[in-house]
Design brief:
The chain has helices at about 5-20, 30, 40-50, 75-85, 110-125, 125-130, 135-140; strands at about 55, 65. The chain is mainly alpha-helical and about 140 residues long. The protein has a single domain (about 5-140), classed as Winged helix-like DNA-binding domain superfamily/Winged helix DNA-binding domain (Arc Repressor Mutant, subunit A), CATH 1.10.10.10. It has a two-stranded antiparallel ribbon. A hairpin with a 5-residue loop joins strand 1 and strand 2. Helix 1 (about 5-20) packs across helix 3. The chain is elongated. It starts with a helix and ends with a helix.
Length: about 140
């Protein structure tokens, strides 16, 4: 399992917005200065907006901002918005019928357990934790 560039850029954009929370809307060009390509960044911010994680403000002083405080947005919110729901195997989650082995597969429980644990860990990491480099403390909960 590997996070795509789209997923990583989504996290980076959200970290930029979290770092500037309370400062008003941030211009696309300012966010792009973190090394995120302009055209791709618009697409990424569009995904984050549709997921309800960012809002946009139009006009000369417009831009993007978090829709809620950094302590209320988790890594799972961002990954789900960018990549879709995380699942280690198609036999876990919404596409269970995709598995030809159905209910007799001994590995299905392992994939379900690992998927649930990864999602639990992602839910325990907020943007605020990332900014404060407080990941390990929360990951042990």
């Amino acid at each position: 399992m590997k996070l795509s560039t789209k997923g990583k850029y989504g996290v980076y954009a959200m970290l930029y917005l979290a770092e500037h929370a309370g400062e008003g809307p941030q211009a696309l060009k300012a966010i792009a200065e973190w090394g995120l390509p302009d055209p791709y960044l618009e697409q990424i911010l569009g995904c984050l907006r549709r997921a309800g994680l960012v809002t946009t403000v139009r006009g000369a002083q417009g831009g993007y901002q978090l829709s809620r405080p950094p302590e209320e947005i988790t890594a799972r919110h961002i990954i789900d918005a960018m990549e879709g729901p995380l699942s280690l195997s198609e036999c876990v989650g919404e596409a269970e019928e995709a598995c030809p082995r159905g209910g007799q597969c001994a590995a299905k429980g392992v994939w379900a357990y690992l998927t649930a644990e990864i999602n639990r860990l992602l839910e325990g990491i907020t943007l605020k934790d990332m900014l404060e480099n407080n990941i390990c403390a929360n990951a042990e909960k």
